[in-house]
Design brief:
By secondary structure, the chain is of the alpha/beta class. It has 11 helices and 13 strands. Strands 2-1-3-4-5-6 form a 6-stranded parallel beta sheet, covered by helices on one side. It starts with a helix and ends in a 10-residue tail after the last helix.
Length: about 350
């Protein structure tokens, strides 16, 4: 009996020792989580990556791409028949612009998909992509993996010289004295998610607002003439967005900033202190009501120095429309893969909780 007990005790000790030895010698890499097929491993830095821009409208002018001097090797294409050989595919996501009802793409293992969006969520129409997984995002949102928005604000390489500033301030003062009208708005989309039309109705009760285009009673011929007329005659211009969505500031604002002869009034979901040059816009969010905004505009319209100060930002800053970030995308593709999970439903990421209803009406 005692001999059997010792035998079983010895076997138990041997089992414990073997388990301990296996724990110490077991290869550590076998414990690691197997990466998902959508994640790439470190690429060969000398490899030329193929990047496909899929279903992009012709106005992006990708048929004849400019010569690029990127740090890494990449080639770009719009030929959809290359989808299976491409290392990355940038997918234009707005179905209504393309008349698309189904996404005819199959993602192969190791391929990177990029979600490209430029319309605000209420007007995005991305039904063909619902439930689709993407690795990166390329949008106007500041939390995108690759930013591509409507406005790029940057410091001038060389600030305006003293003589340039003197000439410019004289031009601004002369322009100010010739302006005879208060607020202009050119618009053809009349009923919007942001209810901007309702805000303008309220604003018109307190200050002159001239509305041109399909939503107003005034006409001014072609758009080129309209732009000149606004810069010449009006002190303020309404750059109101059709939605109140996170980081959304469209080309309407860019155009008026680039001219730098009229002060824009903005209403939207963007952080305009981040998007625009300092002290370059008037934000409706800074006023408790349209009436309070109107009183401020009336005061500013009669103060030459205060008004022209809002146009001086051009001495230190410049605004431009960003170009498609080919090289940034190329370099990112050559980097090591990201550890985070992909966007399992990019349309949900784009839409959920990113827009809000107006609170100022």
């Amino acid at each position: 009996m005692r001999r059997n007990l010792l035998f079983f005790l010895g076997c138990a000790l041997l089992a414990v020792w073997c388990s301990f030895w296996l724990f110490l010698t077991y290869p550590k890499h076998l414990n690691k989580k197997t990466p998902k097929l959508s994640q790439r491993f470190m690429s060969d830095p000398n490899k030329e990556m193929m990047i496909l821009f899929y279903d992009f409208p012709s106005y992006y002018e990708l048929a004849s791409l400019p010569s690029l001097n990127c740090k890494q090797k990449c080639k770009f294409s719009i030929q959809s028949n290359l989808s299976q050989s491409a290392d990355a595919i940038v997918v234009f996501t707005h179905d209504h612009i393309l008349g698309r009802t189904k996404l005819d793409l199959v993602k192969r293992p190791g391929q990177t998909w990029i979600f490209f969006a430029v319309e605000s969520p209420p007007y995005s129409n991305q039904n063909s992509l619902r439930g689709k997984s993407f690795d990166w995002t390329m949008t106007y949102r500041l939390d995108s993996d690759i930013f591509f928005g409507y406005i790029k604000t940057s410091k001038r390489a060389t600030p305006a010289s003293a003589s340039e500033r003197k000439t410019d301030i004289e031009r601004m003062k002369e322009s100010f004295r010739k302006k005879t009208k208060m607020v202009a708005w050119m618009v053809s989309h009349c009923n919007t998610e942001s209810r901007r039309e309702k805000y303008v109705e309220e604003l018109k009760r307190h200050i002159q607002v001239d509305v041109y285009g399909g939503c107003g009673t005034l006409k001014c011929g072609n758009w080129s003439f309209c732009d000149q007329m606004v810069g010449r005659d009006y002190k303020f211009y309404l750059s109101f967005e059709n939605t109140l969505c996170k980081d959304y500031a469209s080309e309407k604002l860019l155009k008026i900033l680039q001219k730098r002869d009229t002060v824009p009034i903005v209403r939207g979901g963007a952080d305009y202190k981040t998007v625009c040059p300092p002290d370059s816009v008037i934000n409706t969010a800074d006023f408790s009501s349209a009436a309070e905004l109107a009183n401020f505009l009336k005061t500013l319209a009669n103060k030459e120095e205060a008004y022209t100060n809002m146009l001086k930002w051009g001495w230190e800053y410049e605004v431009s429309q960003p170009k498609l970030p080919f090289c940034e995308l190329c370099e990112k593709l050559h980097e090591a893969p990201m550890d985070r999970e992909p966007y399992t439903d990019a349309v949900k990421w784009w839409n959920d909780g990113t827009c809000h209803r107006p609170q100022d009406l």
